[in-house]
Each structure stands twice: as C-alpha cells, then as structure tokens.
Amino acid sequence: MKRFFHVILIILNAIAAISLILAYLSCFVSPEKVWWLNFLGLGYTYILVGNLIFMVIWIFSKKKRLMFISLLPILFSWNMISRSFQLFERKLSGDEKKGIKVVTYNVALFNVKSSHGLSVFSYLRDTKADIICMQEFVSSKRWKDVHPDSIAKWLDKPYYHIEQPGKWSSQGISTYSAYPIIKRQLVYADSTLHACMYTDIVIDTDTVRIFNMHLKTTGLRSMYDMLRKNRQGRQLVDFAKDEYAKTDFDEVTSDIAKNIAHRTKQVDHIVRHINESPYPVIICGDFNDSPISYAYQTIRDNRKDAFIEAGKGRGSSYNIRRTLAQRVDFILHSSAFKAYNYECPHIDCSDHYPVMCRLVKRK
C-alpha cells in the first residue's frame, strides 16, 4: 500500500512538473495553434505552488533526489516568477511630483446600474494622475453626467481621446490627459467593447505615444457562472453525469477557444502599430490575460513592465473570487522611462482594480 501511494505521488508530481513547463511555453506558442495552453498560463501561480509543495515533500522523505522532478521545471521557468510575484517595491525619494503619473482602469461602464459612477470619477480625480486610461468607458453628449466634457472637467483633465466602437455605441475606451494631445488614432475595434487606440501626447518638449487597449475577454466568468449554476445543490458526480451540464460546458469551452483565438489576432495586429511608433510608448489596458501568456509576451517584447520594476505582492487586478484573482491589467513602457510607486488599490467600484505608477524619464 505504501509503495502504491509512493507511485501515485510520483505520477502526480510528474503531471505538475509537465504542466509548469507547458505553462511557460504558452508564452511563445500562438493560441491559434494550441488554445488550451492559455489555461495553463492562467494557472501558472497555482501550478508553481503545487510543484513547491512536492519539493518540500521529497526533501523531508528518504527519496530526496525526487525533488528534481519539480526543481528542474522551476529553474527552467525561473524568469516567469517575477511576472506573478514581487517582494520589493520601488518608491520615489525626494520630489514625489517628478515624472508623470499614469493610471489604467477598467471602470465597468462606471457601474451605472449600481450608481457608483461618481465614486469612480471622484477616486480618479483624487489620484492626481497626469494620464488616465479607461476601458469599458461610457460617455454620451446626450447625458449630462457622462458627457465627455463633463468628465474632463470632473477629472481636471482638459484633453481627451475617446473611441466608441460601433456607429451607435456610447461605450468604449478613453484616455484623459493633463498634457496636450497632437494626434488620435484608432488601431483596432470590433463590434463589442474591445478596442485599441493610440494618443500622441506632448509632455514638455517630448512626445509620448499612449496605447490604450481592451482585448477580447477569455470568458472565465461565463465558465465560473456555468459551473456554479449547474453544481448548485448537487454533488460533483451528479454534475458529471448531467447531459445538460455537459452541453453547457461544451458550449462555454468552445466560446473560450474562439475568444482566445480572436484575442491572438488582435494582439498580432496591435503589435505592428506599437513597433512602428516613432516615439517612446506607454501601453495601458485590460489584456484579459495573465502575464504568463502569448498576449502579454508579444505585447511586452523588450519593453518594461511597471509591476516588475516597482510592484509588490501579486498585483492582482481582477477578481472572480479571491482564490481566482489574476493580474490582467498592465502598464508597460519603453526603456526611456523608469517606473516607481506602483499601486493596485483594491477599491470596490468595478470588477477590476485600478493600476497606477509614476514614470520618470531616464537620464
């Protein structure tokens, strides 16, 4: 019996180790070819923790050499750990106002159904940011409270760029700036809320190109809601035998695969525009994907991640439930800048949390 348990433990450890390697490879393999690798990337943190647990088990056993089953994959993907967790934040010393403060925030249509809109505006104004990028933004010249000029006045940001996909849509993405805007360009838009644009902003004598994007959702919330609905009041075995539940599961899985492929096409299109920028770039947005993903890897390329430079902890910006929290909102930037004072405060105005930092031009 003891030997049987030992074999099972080795098999489970091997599965965890292989999963960690595949999660790492998900950054470099297009999801259009192998879409399910994306899920392993989303679960990277939990797979890593699982491998660490196996290492501890073997260290305190008589088969200490078996710890290498997990140790080797961990070393193989070592550079990915910093994308998911940081120990030491980087704060500015001296003048806190130097550089520019950037905020990106999926505002969830200002939670108009729950009347939280004004609290979002108040919060964003109080951040005293120089540049505010919003996704799932809503505005209309027919509605006083969300008129673009009213929002500009409330935020104390006189310059703005708004893109609202669809002829009659009032929803989309926006960039509000304390600095003059000299060019506005839509890069990508589909028939939903998802879009990407760039805004050229003049800061003192320098021009910076701000990319603001909201990529295609994976659909994890649909999966979570489906599982919760079908499993409510039943045992897991009953759920597995339920043909209706299986049909729902197949449909949701199919939608997720399509969404991931769609997002990959968006990324490949957007990156061409980023690479063609004649100015230093700041990339903000809701990627709807983790830092262990093809989308993140492709967009970041040789650019800097403000969280890796100046963040602390996990930096989770989206939460289905606390245990499923993910970092899906990012501020990336050219090496012309250095990031400080990274924050992701957990405020209850949206299903996302705002992400902010201060970017200082390198000398």
Notes on the protein architecture:
39% of the residues lie in helices and 22% in strands. Helix 1 runs antiparallel to helix 3, helix 1 runs parallel beside helix 4 and helix 10 runs parallel beside helix 11. The chain starts with a helix and ends with a strand. A six-stranded mixed beta sheet has the order 3-4-2-1-12-11. The protein has a six-stranded mixed beta sheet with strand order 5-6-7-8-10-9. The protein contains twelve helices and twelve strands. By secondary structure, the protein is α+β, with helices and mostly antiparallel strands. A hairpin with a 7-residue loop joins strand 3 and strand 4.
Briefly summarize what is shown.
The protein is 39% helix and 22% strand. The protein has 363 residues and is α+β, with helices and mostly antiparallel strands.
Number of helices: 12
Lateral strand order in the biggest sheet: 3-4-2-1-12-11
What portion of residues belong to β-strands?
15-25%
Q: Which oligomerization state do the chains in this entry correspond to?
A: single chain
Measured as a percent range, the helix fraction is: 25-40%
Distance between the termini: 66 Å
Morphology call: globular
Q: What is the tally of beta strands?
A: 12
Mean pLDDT: 87
The radius of gyration is: 22 Å
How are helices and strands ordered from N to C? HHHHHEHEHEEEEEHHHEHEHEEE
Q: Summarize the biggest pleated sheet.
A: 6 strands, mixed
Low-confidence stretches: 231-237
